[in-house]
Design a protein that fits this description.
Chains: A alpha/beta (323), B alpha/beta (254), C alpha/beta (660)
Largest sheet of chain C: 4 strands, parallel
Distance between the termini of chain C: 93 Å
Number of helices of chain C: 26
CATH superfamily of chain B: HUPs
Strand order of the largest sheet of chain C: 6-5-7-8
Structural class of chain B: alpha/beta
CATH architecture of chain B: 3-Layer(aba) Sandwich
Number of strands of chain C: 12
Distance between the termini of chain B: 61 Å
Oligomer: heterotrimer
Strand order of the largest sheet of chain B: 9-8-7-10-6-1-4-5-11
Shape of chain C: elongated
Chain lengths: 323, 254, 660
């Protein structure tokens, strides 16, 4: 049992961004432990994607291919990956902490009598895997104590996708044994609730509003600032749950993950579910009346004050500066 | 249909958490406990399914004596029966160990559907449901917003990243982990609490853990502030001026 | 002078422009046996008809569930209230002076007529005790005649008011029965007075006498069929009122969830429902009725009465109807709807105004309990409120750490048993920005006075909104938590800035334990007023009486003393016990948008309309309700300040809470 195996994620031939973050994590852990790092990509025909991975610094790329893996099903993936892992016999299995991984990885780990160490935010010497408890109030160090593959999933934004080292390696096609009868659920086509009119992931500047705004009418104040900055308007989950802004403007673990040049958080406390969606931003400015709000943990510049006074003043100053 | 809801009792969300002397866990004295929030939504989903399709809702919770209050509240909200798995050593069991305990407690129940919250407010591992499904050999789906009973089984709406959703058709019996916010929760009523007094709450003992833990929680500690935040002060106009300066020269967006 | 001969004494009489006026009552000299028989038959029939209707009503009242919390003590107060409200008609007159006085005359006239009427019936039977010839008789008959005049004028005036002037509080529909009764009363008086104008012999007097008699015999059975049943019931109703304003009875036993069906209606409620005189004073002062809501307190009582008439006290039919709109076969159904029941701010004007002792609030809150305790009330805002209380222990659903941060930031001392007072923050004081300002200023005032105080480390909501919305589970949970917290901390005295907290702790918590004594900060400051700065800024300040401080606690003067120290006190058109609600009470501050006009807008406009420069409040809810309305007004809207803030602004500026 040796080496690191990174399980990537793709859908319809397009990468889930977090795959490369997991890859970076795997490479760095491998370097630290003086082990080899391999990667796997799953699907029905993943030759293009596996060739892309072959250009990274990896011991091997496994193309796990089967027609029954075309669409994600938990049964299909768990069965196929169990076979892959028994074949590769790694010491560590690294996965990105995506919705899909949350669906199958715990069951996959169970097959090896292991427990997944999920949503890791740091890897320290040991290796010790750091997780967050009580919604980000505490950190916890986890260690594996068994002698079977250690399953770890990495939180978004902890490792930078750009840090993946390039290299050259070979692709091994791995065809798992799968019967249609083993797959018990039938997944439908992914769909969006409303027509997608805004792509927050492409925005350079985002002004985001949270519960501190109080009433729906007050959002206009923040919209003015967004317009002045030429920014997209986004929101934390409660605002969208209330229907004050459409769901597609939600940033957070259940909304969009964004990484703009500037993320201006107005009246957002910084609950962990929100932070996860924006902490990859290059610069964060936060305005909140509570100086102890967790948002300030991730902010470069903070204003502990009344947004109803600050935001209009800022809008005015921005407009003046732009003239 | 018989629906089983596995719930967890966790410290209240806005409890002041302090670290125990040995640094391995939190100080549990003087804490108030309540139902894990996603589990409250799982319970609500079960109750609504019962309202629509008839049947029975059984709630299940592992833990020390204090978890019976959360079980009683679940009965008050409309669950029909409760099973308390007495275990004082949950801190020494990992997810796999706990799921095995749950599986053992329900082995005679043969439920049609098992619901859990998608993760817990304290540990947040988000795995117990999936592991339980794997142990029981049941199909499962996670992060579910809506559940519909069809002729052939279930049609569920699964939440994906970035505002995408997906419908999944599955046979019964199955296990689902439920996302918060899918339904409107109901409040506990006096009538519910009175009725709960006559509902059955069975206590079973958790068997000693078969094996040691595969992962261990070594220590807990306060997160360090990794970023040095520059707090700006002054009158609103002054703050606005300072911010504009940062926006111009540091962040460079205007 | 014409001298009439009745008996042995000559009576004085006079002709006044052709009319024969006697100084005493004329009566037929004798009655034939037929007449006596007719009279007896008439009396039997009339009385039978009376009981034919009254009997079932009595049965309904007695068959209703017993009030488990009822007690005659303190009897002294009951006797006094009976004397003042029934005999002296104090409330009737004070709250609606002119019509009230007219009614008082009718009532006192009726009392005066009791002897006359008895004597009238007794005469043909040879049992009369007042003789037109005796001094007692003569005196009494003239005494009664004066009353008859007053009554006749009064009833005529009231008739004109009801049928010509038509004030809306008496209802939109013309009440024919009221007209009939008014005419009967008028006829009674006229037929009595006529006996002074006719000769004691001849057909004239007989006609007059029989007119009077027949009117009486017709009147009697009509009493239980109309709202004039209050003639019989209301003295009893006033005497047997629940002991306390807005007194909510404890639930009795595991099957009691409030007023769900007829089986939950108690004897007191039945008695009160049948006592309603439909005067509409409750509706006239109701903030919901005045702003276009469905809720009409009078109709709640009449709806209860109709329910009892139709279904009886053992019925399992729900009391609350589903309809929000008029249904053709039951146009009054909307008044007994859940929607109407939940529009009540529990301001108490209805209960306060009622001249016959009807207590609306236990009924309305009872109806809410029946809906909320059984989970039948499914309002998203209500559910959110209850969940917030369940989860966070405060009505706003905020994390308790927010309160901790405020205490820390403000430097408020924690109560440790050594201080004199526990300062109760409440949900508004702990979490609402304006409430916090009031706390901060009041803390400064206490500091200035050298009073030691501390705040509880952990405080949950007193449960007031849950209590008024009928959620007994949530209320019990909050009350028990609070009582325990106060006991553990060994608190002896509490002072609070919120009248809702004060009321709930001092009164409603009694069901679950004994709380330390608590007072409102206006009472506290008034007691110390000689030590407070008497620096009037000369600004005009209109004081708004909060419902839970005024009508509920009868604290009217102390806040005014504080206001007068800070500026010139101005009274709102509706003040003291007639103060118009701000709209927040009854849990309504936490429910969604109102239908119709906003109660807070109406009151804010009334306050601003006085032209005062400042609106002075003594309740953080009133303050919050007026805040946005006032600031949105055109022109120079008045400032809005709590009495603590008014006092604190005169204190030396350097003092901050936390500095001793």
């Amino acid at each position: 049992m040796s080496g690191i195996l990174v399980l990537t994620e793709q859908r319809g031939g397009a990468w889930n961004r977090m795959s490369f973050e997991a890859l970076a994590a795997g490479q760095q852990l491998a370097a630290r432990l003086n082990m080899e790092c391999s990667a796997a990509v799953m699907g029905s025909d993943v030759s293009a994607l596996s060739n892309e991975l072959a250009g990274k610094k990896l011991a091997k790329v496994f193309a796990v291919q089967h027609t029954l893996l075309k669409d994600y099903t938990s049964d299909g993936f768990i069965t196929a990956l169990e076979q892959l892992i028994r074949h590769v016999d790694p010491a560590y299995v690294i996965l990105p902490h995506t919705y899909q991984v949350r669906d199958f990885a715990p069951a996959l780990a169970t097959r090896f009598k292991q427990v997944l160490i999920s949503d890791v935010i740091a890897i320290h010497d040991g290796p010790v895997f750091v997780r967050q408890l009580f919604q980000g109030k505490l950190n916890a160090d986890y260690k594996q104590t068994a002698s079977a593959p250690c399953f770890v999933s990495i939180q978004a934004g902890v490792f930078r996708a750009e840090a993946v080292e390039a290299g050259a390696t070979t692709v091994e096609v791995f065809t798992p044994q799968l019967e249609a009868s083993q797959i018990r659920s039938k997944p439908g086509e992914p769909f969006r609730e409303a027509a997608q009119t805004v792509d927050l992931s492409a925005a350079q500047v985002i002004v985001s509003v949270g519960r501190g705004i109080g009433e729906q009418e007050n959002i206009a104040i923040v919209q003015e600032l967004a317009s002045a900055l030429g920014a997209e308007l986004a929101a934390s989950r409660p605002i969208c749950d209330n229907g004050w802004l459409p769901m597609e403007r939600q940033v957070g673990s259940s909304g969009q993950t964004v990484a703009p040049r500037l993320y201006l958080a107005v009246g957002i406390s910084g609950a962990i579910q929100h932070l996860v969606g924006m902490k990859g931003s290059k610069a964060v400015i936060a305005i909140n009346k509570d100086e102890n709000a967790p948002i300030f943990e991730v902010a470069d510049y903070g204003v502990a004050g009344d947004l109803f006074e600050i935001v209009p003043a800022l809008t005015k100053a921005v407009v003046a500066a732009k003239q | 249909m018989k629906i089983l809801v596995a719930i967890k009792q966790v410290p209240e969300r806005d409890a002041q958490i302090s670290i125990a002397g040995d640094g391995r866990w939190i100080d549990e004295s003087d804490l108030n406990y309540t139902i894990n929030e996603p589990d409250a939504y799982a319970l609500e989903e079960a109750l609504q399914l019962k309202d629509k399709n008839g049947g029975e809702v059984v709630v299940l919770c592992a833990g020390p004596e204090r978890v019976t209050s959360t079980l009683r509240e679940a009965l008050a909200k409309g669950a029909d029966r409760a099973i308390h798995i007495e275990a004082d050593d949950l801190g020494h069991r990992d997810t796999l160990g706990l799921a095995q305990v749950l599986a053992e407690a329900i082995k005679d129940e043969s439920p049609d559907l098992i619901l859990t919250g998608l993760q817990s407010d304290d540990l947040g591992l988000g795995q117990t449901g999936v592991v339980l499904a794997e142990i029981l050999g049941m199909p499962h789906a996670t992060i579910i917003m809506q559940v519909e009973v069809t002729g052939a089984g279930l049609k569920v709406k699964r939440e994906l990243e970035d505002g995408w959703f997906q419908h999944v058709e599955m046979p019964l019996p199955a296990l689902l982990t439920i996302q918060s916010g899918g339904n409107k929760l109901r409040y506990a009523t006096l009538m519910g609490i009175k009725k709960a007094k006559t509902k059955e709450m069975k206590t079973v003992q958790a068997a000693a853990p078969a094996a040691g833990q595969t992962i261990t929680l070594e220590r807990v500690y306060l997160p360090e502030k990794q970023k040095k935040t520059e707090m700006l002060t002054g009158t609103p106009a002054e703050i606005a001026a300072k911010l504009v300066e940062k926006l111009k020269f540091e962040v460079r967006v205007i | 002078m014409y001298v009439a001969r009745v008996g042995a004494r000559p009576m004085g009489a006079a002709f006044i422009s052709g009319m024969h006026l006697s100084a005493t009552l004329a009566e037929p000299a004798h009655f034939s046996r037929l007449e006596i028989a007719l009279l007896l038959v008439g009396m039997v029939v009339s009385t039978a008809l009376f009981f034919w209707r009254f009997g079932p009503i009595l049965r309904i009242i007695f068959r209703s569930r017993k009030d488990t919390d009822f007690s005659l003590h303190p009897v002294g107060k009951r006797v006094w209230d009976f004397f003042a409200e029934v005999l002296c008609q104090a409330k009737v007159i004070r709250q609606r002076p002119l019509p009230g006085l007219a009614h008082a005359f009718v009532f006192w006239g009726f009392l005066a007529f009791v002897l006359v009427t008895l004597n009238h019936i007794a005469t043909p039977l040879g049992l009369s005790f007042l003789h037109p010839s005796s001094y007692a008789g003569r005196f009494y008959f003239i005494f009664a005649a004066l009353w008859a005049l007053l009554v006749a004028v009064a009833i005529a005036g009231l008739f004109v008011r009801r049928f010509l002037a038509r004030p809306i509080w008496l209802g939109e529909k013309v009440s024919y029965e009221s007209g009939v009764i008014a005419l009967l009363i008028f006829l009674l008086m006229v037929s009595y007075l006529a006996a002074f104008f006719v000769a004691p012999d001849g057909a004239g007097i007989r006609a007059v006498w029989w007119t009077h008699t027949l009117t009486l015999l017709v009147f009697l059975p009509l009493i239980p069929h109309t709202k004039h049943l209050h003639l019989v019931l209301s003295p009893v109703t006033v005497f047997l009122k629940r002991n306390g304003f807005s007194k909510i009875p404890p639930l009795s036993g595991d099957e009691d969830f409030g007023l769900v069906t007829g089986r939950d209606v108690t004897q007191l409620i039945s008695l009160q429902a049948y006592s309603c005189v439909e005067c509409g004073r409750c509706t006239e002062h109701c903030p919901a009725s005045n702003t276009g809501k469905v809720l009409n307190p009078k109709e709640i009582i009449l709806g209860t009465r109709s329910y009892l008439n139709e279904f009886g006290p053992a019925s399992e039919t729900p009391l609350l109807t589903d309809t929000k709109i008029d249904s053709p076969d039951n146009p009054a159904a909307k008044y007994m709807s859940m929607e109407a029941a939940f529009e009540c701010t529990t301001c108490g004007s209805c209960e306060f105004q009622c001249p016959v002792g009807i207590q609306h609030l236990p009924i309305i809150i009872g109806l809410r309990r029946g809906a909320t305790n059984t989970g039948t009330w499914e309002d998203p805002h209500g559910t959110k409120l209850f969940l917030a209380l369940e989860k966070n222990g405060n009505a706003l659903g905020l994390s308790a750490t927010e309160r901790d941060k405020f205490i820390q930031k403000q430097g408020l001392p924690i109560f440790d048993g050594t201080q004199e007072y526990c300062l109760w923050l409440g949900c508004m004081g702990g979490y609402d920005p304006k409430g916090r300002e009031i706390i901060a200023d009041f803390a400064r005032v206490m500091q200035h006075l050298g009073t030691t105080f501390g705040v509880l480390k952990k405080e949950k909501c007193t449960g007031d909104p849950a209590r008024r919305l009928g959620n007994d589970l949530a209320f019990q949970s909050m009350a028990e938590f609070g009582l325990k917290a106060l006991e553990t901390a060994k608190v002896q005295k509490i002072v609070a800035i919120c009248p809702h907290c004060v009321r709930t702790i001092s009164n409603d918590w009694r069901e679950y334990g004994v709380a330390p004594e608590i007072e409102h900060h206006s009472e506290f400051m008034a007691r110390h007023k000689s030590l407070l700065p008497q620096q009037s800024s000369g600004e005009s300040i209109v004081y708004h009486d909060p419902c839970y401080l005024g009508r509920y606690r009868e604290v009217y003067e102390q806040p005014r003393e504080i206001v007068s120290m800070a500026g010139d006190l101005v009274e709102a058109p509706r003040s003291h016990e007639r103060s118009f609600c701000c709209g927040a009470g009854g849990g309504l501050a936490f429910l969604g948008e109102e239908n119709g006009e906003r109660v807070s807008h109406v009151r804010a406009a009334e306050l601003a309309g006085t032209g005062a420069q400042i609106v002075g409040t003594a309740c953080p809810f009133c303050n919050t309700m007026f805040r946005d309305t006032l600031s949105a007004m055109d022109g120079a809207p008045p400032q809005l300040l709590d009495i603590a803030q008014l006092t604190a602004r005169a204190l030396p500026q350097t003092q901050k809470a936390g500095e001793q």
